Amino acid sequence: MKFVVEKEKRNMSKLIVSLSPHAHGTDTVEKNMYGVIIALMPALLVSFYFFGLGSAIVCATSVAACVFFEWAINKFMLKSERNTVCDGSAILTGLLLGFNLPSNLPIWIIIIGALFAIGVAKMTFGGLGNNLFNPALVGRAALLVAFPAQMTTWPKVGQLTSYLDAETGATPLAIMKEAIKTGNASVLDQLPSSLDLFLGNHPDGAGAMGEICALALLLGLAYMLWKKIITWHIPVSIIATVFVFSGLCHLASPAYADPFSVIFSGGLMLGAIFMATDYVTSPMTAKGQLIYGVAIGVLTVVIRNWGAYPEGMSFAILIMNAFTPLINTYVKPKRFGEVVK
Fold first, then answer.
1. Which of 137, 155, 263, 334 has the fewest CB atoms within 10 Å distance of its CB?
2. Could you tell me the pTM of the whole model?
3. Looking at the DSSP assignment, which residues form a beta bridge with residue 156?
4. What percentage of the chain has pLDDT greater than the value 70?
5. Which DSSP helix (H) or strand (E) runs through 167?
6. What is the distance between the alpha carbons of residues 123 and 25, in angstroms, rounded to a whole number?
7. Sign of the alpha-carbon dihedral angle for 209, 212, 216, 221
8. What phi and psi values does residue 156 have, to the nearest 5 degrees?
9. Which residues lie closer than 8 Å to 132 by C-beta, 6 or more apart?
10. 41 pLDDT exceeds 90?
11. Rounded mean pLDDT of 57-68?
12. Could you give phi then psi for residue 208, rounded to 5 degrees?
């Protein structure tokens, strides 16, 4: 008996309890950020294919400006010794901001957008992990308010060597908006087929660089799900909600576009896959993410159909970013051992 007791004492002495967390994963900020950047490569290559020189100039300027502003603010304003430029977050913000811009936007306007994205939306709150709103979307929203004419002039695809002098055209969302405004369903005949919107295969297509081909964005989604960078809850709930809501609108009136055209048009796929899923500005729990995604889907359709802007994805995400702390507070898992009342 004495031997057994001594053995148990020795075993208990080996139990070392430290402060949480007790388990450490292999994920790092750098790994996840560069994983999302890799997932964006199909859409980036497609944007080069469709918009050529303009796409290269806009994306390069946006990324370079975002990286520069993060480095400069850290070094000269915050006096921080920590180098956050190499963690990939500034590069990702620059890519996403560029994807939301026209391919003929002047360089000086892109730089202003990068300053808002990094300087106002990110670094003002304390840098990565502290920002309340998605930085790239804040940059886009600021430019849309400050430069509405330049931000709503969309070059047509196929002008590979054109930049500032590119020919512009109406986006699919603008056509949908006109049909709703006039109540004339025949306006929707100008829309490409759902398959062409999915593939980006329409010669008169116009829009932001990152939204032109839904297939490329879905390839990025598949990669991130495979690598477990994100979960399915937010993108699937957004796309499903928009599909159902827009489908009901289409059944109520033929002036509303069919749901496939709606989900393959504009920035819906880009926002649902790459921006609404931002770690910092989205809810932490699966249930919270589903609520968040459904709300974004509803707001997107409401703004697109009855708001002042043809596109509603950016504003819907920013609005729900503000509700994320509230969702995290009221939708959270029960603590271990908690008594359910």
1. 334
2. 0.87
3. 206
4. 87
5. none
6. 27
7. positive
8. -75, 155
9. 125, 281, 321, 322, 324, 325
10. yes
11. 94
12. -70, 155
